[in-house]
Amino acid sequence: MELLPHDVVEYIFERLDVKTLLKFTAVSKQWKSSIIQCRSFQTRQMLHRKQSGKTDVVLVSLYDGAGSNPNIEALRTLVVGSTVSVKIPTTWENKFYQVCNSSCDGLICLYYRYNPSIVVNPTTRWHRTRALVSPSPGFGKDKICGTYKPVWLYNSAEVGLKIKSITTCEVFDFTTNAWRYIVPASPYLIYHSQDPVYCDGSLHWFTKGDETNILALDLHTETFQVIPRPPFLHSLLRLIESIICSLHDRLCVSERIWPEQVIWSFDSEEKTWKKIYSIDLKTTPSWRRNNRWRTFTPLSVLGKDKLLFYDGESSDGPLVTLDLRTKYCDIAYKCKVKAYKALCYVPSLISILDRATWNCCYHTTQMLRHKQSGKTHVAFVSLYGGSARNSGIEALRTLAVGSTVSVKIPTTWENKIRQPSPGFGKDKINGTYKVVWLYNSAELGLKNKSITTCEVFDFTTNAWRYIVPASPYLIHHIQVPLYCDGSLHWLTEGDETNVLSLDLHTETFQVIPQPPFLHGLTTPNLIMCSLDDRLCVSPRIWLQQHVMWSFDSEDKTWKKIYSIDLKRTSSALRDYITPLSVLGKDKLLLYDREFSGVQLVAYDLRTKYYDISYKCNDNAYVLCYVPSLISIL
Would you call the peptide bond into 259 cis, given omega within 30 degrees of 0 as the criterion? Predict the structure, then answer.
């Protein structure tokens, strides 16, 4: 049981780095499945990192510029300002890869015409390969649906296609693991020497022709449009000295026109271009190498007065910072090797999940939030009238405790009794759900060596299978097995009553250490229940008291947690009451099994006062549940 509410744990975790969170996945299965692997949490954690002020860079395809070492290092990451970089081990060392111009949610897309393309998270080292693609693809995210899309837009004639469309556009679908066409494609030829840049839900290219424009593909609608023409692009000559980039999540273009390198930013709301930075090349000698001026690629804004650039030709290091006030340049990362390209990215936990996995993570988080909201929900199963004149059976009805209104749930099995004699629970390790039927062999007329037989239903094959060996103890078949903390529990039958447990992951039986209260009590006088996600047993001492004992699975001990003195309470509380849930700190929700109908009672442990929460004249099986979106896939 968590000492802190789920929301508080999430709030703390959001402020931790990815490396620490990955260690936590080995500490708690619940943290791993319900928090760390949840997409909404991953997004919030990534945004916190993005707002931390730190700038992270990934270097791709590092090699010895002198040619003395033919080895290629796949990936290396660093935080700007640190002198330490981290080599990222991969399965594609010594293979040259190019990289798409933009990272997206901590993911980068590698490609090369002779190797399968790879989408990789450098922080977690998760990666996924896909089909071959020729240069130069783009990679981005549909902001509405949250799906990631590699896109390949090319001039049809340049790849030998004799079709009416001057361009062809393909998008990779991760759900089918295949490429599909976008029709219609771009009405403009594109300038293929520069890779497209992702920004704000769209990919962007320079167009080719008499007039140069910037073409945008909306990754949600998958439609092309031309961005209002920049005031600075007039010819292909200018285009050679221009670079599309993204700064502060805005589309930018950097162009070099002697004696300046100017960076322009596009305002998507006002549809206008604005000059945001200007670099005087005459006062920045670092921009000159081998008697020629070069155009550096802007990567990021560092604080208010500094810019980070990528210099692919430098022998001192690929990253350069420029102080806009002092005009001073500095090598941000010194190394003797060159990198094909450098990208800024945000360390994240994100990977590209299939839709079913994504839904499962979301539904689990939603359920836990509801579980910790303090609301208690009750389900009534197979409601039927006490009178013989009413033969109708209502399958399901639900109720939120505290409300006087219950809701009938329509089903296709009305007027059929569904007595819950098997057990139902969840394998906490694999996350699979299991229906288990354990029964005494002789009572069903089976003549076999085993005194019990155990069957489990497999939802993947839609069939039952046996668990061997089954329980070595006879079970008390009148009471329904109880699920708690990854195991199903039964009361045994015989001279000595024990609590039998089946671990739903290992599918093995064990006897829980004998409770101190079972001596002299027969099985019918015992009630198993789950309170606060712990196994509890309530022994009934006739007309005297109900005592509830809780089992600590770590210490393997029993502890008395609640006691109801039947002699001091009203006669409305009968002997056969079943604990259903804890309401706050001082109240218990009880189900009166002897009442001629359904009666739910809220019992105050301090005042010994009870209140009837819900009452009806129909009989039913009653249990608490958590409303959720979960289904068995």
Answer: yes
Per the CB < 8 A criterion, the answer to whether 92 and 115 are in contact is yes
CA angle 367, 373, 376 (to 5 degrees): 85
526 bridge partner residues: 539
CA distance linking residue 243 with residue 273, whole number of Å: 15
Indicate the pLDDT class of residue 40, thresholds 50, 70 and 90: confident
Are residues 475 and 492 in contact, defined by beta-carbon separation less than 8 angstroms?
A: yes
Is the peptide bond preceding residue 469 cis, with omega within 30 degrees of 0? yes
Q: Rounded to an integer, what distance in angstroms lies between the CA atom of residue 470 and that of residue 472?
A: 6
Alpha carbon dihedral 571, 572, 573, 579, in 10-degree steps, equals 180
H/E/C letters for each residue in 294-349? CCCEEEEEECCCEEEEECCCCCCCCEEEEECCCCCEEEEECCCEEEEEEEEECCCC
Q: What is the DSSP letter of 587?
A: E
Residues 372-415 have pLDDT tens digits of 677 888 887 777 765 544 457 887 888 888 887 888 888 877 77
* CA–CA gap between residue 127 and residue 113 (Å, rounded): 18
Q: Answer whether 407's CB lies under 8 Å from 397's CB.
A: yes
Average pLDDT, the chain: 82
Angle (CA) 149-152-154 rounded to 5° is 155
Confidence of residue 337 (pLDDT cuts 50, 70, 90): confident
DSSP state of 18: H
CA distance 563 to 548: 6
Please identify which residue in the block is written with the tokens 């089918």: 176
Contact (CB, 8 A) for 299 and 344 = yes
Q: Distance between CA 410 and CA 396 in Å, rounded?
A: 7
- For residue 9, what are its two tokens? 């744990």
pLDDT the model gives residue 291:
46
**Token pair 């080995």: residue:** 26
Q: What is the C-alpha to C-alpha distance for residues 341 and 244, in angstroms, rounded to an integer?
A: 15
User: Which class for 558: exposed (0-12), middle (13-18), buried (19 or more C-beta within 10 A)?
Assistant: buried
Close Cβ partners of 230 (under 8 Å, ≥ 6 residues apart): 214, 253, 264, 266, 273
Instruction: With CA atoms as reference, report the closest residue to 351 among 632, 46, 92, 29.
Output: 46
Q: Which amino acid is at 375?
A: K
Residue 569's CB is within 10 A of a number of other CB atoms, namely: 16
Query: Cα(113)–Cα(115) distance, rounded to whole angstroms?
Result: 6
| Per-residue confidence (pLDDT) for residue 48, from 0 to 100 | 92
Which has the closest alpha carbon to 352: 161, 35, 139? 139
- β-partners of residue 383 are 394
* CA pair distance 273, 257, nearest whole angstrom: 17
Q: Is the pLDDT of residue 543 over 60?
A: no
